[in-house]
Specification:
8 helices; 2 strands; 68% helix
Length: 235
């Protein structure tokens, strides 16, 4: 019988969230485009939790770092999203977005990002939104149980946390997009799509373990403080 104390709930939540895309592939005819767009959407989820982490961790210049992160990471995700949509054709032509009056000044960039996300939501089936909800829950479990629950926020600052999502994108999406192209070239066979999701799940677990590489029973040489490594990859 499994001891509940030995169950890693963040890992369980992570695996369950990644089972939704597998169900999409097996039972809802999701193709490689849907999978890659879903994983791009996860970048936004990770970025949102990063803002919460920055707010909780604080440190000198927290407000400035949060605003800068919103602008820089938002632009990064928008460009990445445009590229993904162009390559996959998931939401149709980007020019299908209805023309509206432009928002004033630099806010036009925010408007374009909102329009991009709106077109994705309009094109996505209901089951796709459930997959996004699963990812939100998975990241939320990790945030509450590890970053808040174990006190990781006491060992980092907003400035350090700014770079975390970029590391995740570089490591994860290079592999996913490369694998996605291979699957697409072979006609998106079901077996390879499941393998692609399994690859992503495995990499998620690896990044999670690297991010929260701590032993709750490990003590340092100066007392009984838990040895917690600051989370350097967002998960």
């Amino acid at each position: 019988m499994i001891d509940p104390k030995h169950i890693n709930l963040p890992i369980v939540a992570l695996v369950l969230a990644n089972l939704v895309p597998i169900a999409g592939v097996l039972y809802m005819d999701w193709d490689v485009g849907a999978i890659i767009v879903l994983y791009w959407a996860e970048n936004l989820i990770a970025g949102s939790y990063t803002l919460l982490k920055m707010l909780l961790a604080g440190g000198k210049g927290t407000a400035f770092h949060m605003v800068f992160f919103c602008i820089h990471y938002g632009l990064f995700c928008a460009i990445h999203g445009l590229a993904v949509l162009e390559l996959t054709g998931f939401a149709g032509e980007l020019t299908d977005i209805p023309v509206q009056d432009s928002w004033p000044g630099p806010l036009v960039l925010v408007q374009e990002f909102v329009n991009l996300w709106r077109q994705i939501i309009n094109a996505a089936p209901t089951q796709f939104l459930w997959a996004i909800a699963g990812l939100v829950l998975s990241h939320g479990v990790s945030f509450m149980l590890l970053f808040v629950g174990t006190g990781e926020y006491r060992h980092t600052t907003a400035k350090k946390l700014m770079n975390a999502p970029y590391k995740r994108i570089v490591v994860l999406h290079v592999a996913i997009i490369a694998g996605g192209f291979l699957v697409a070239l072979l006609g998106s066979p079901t077996g390879l799509l499941v393998a692609l999701v399994a690859l992503k799940t495995g990499m998620d677990i690896m990044l999670h373990n690297r991010s929260h590489n701590s032993d709750p029973h490990k003590e340092n040489n100066h007392g009984n403080r838990r040895n917690i490594r600051t989370a350097d990859i967002d998960r």
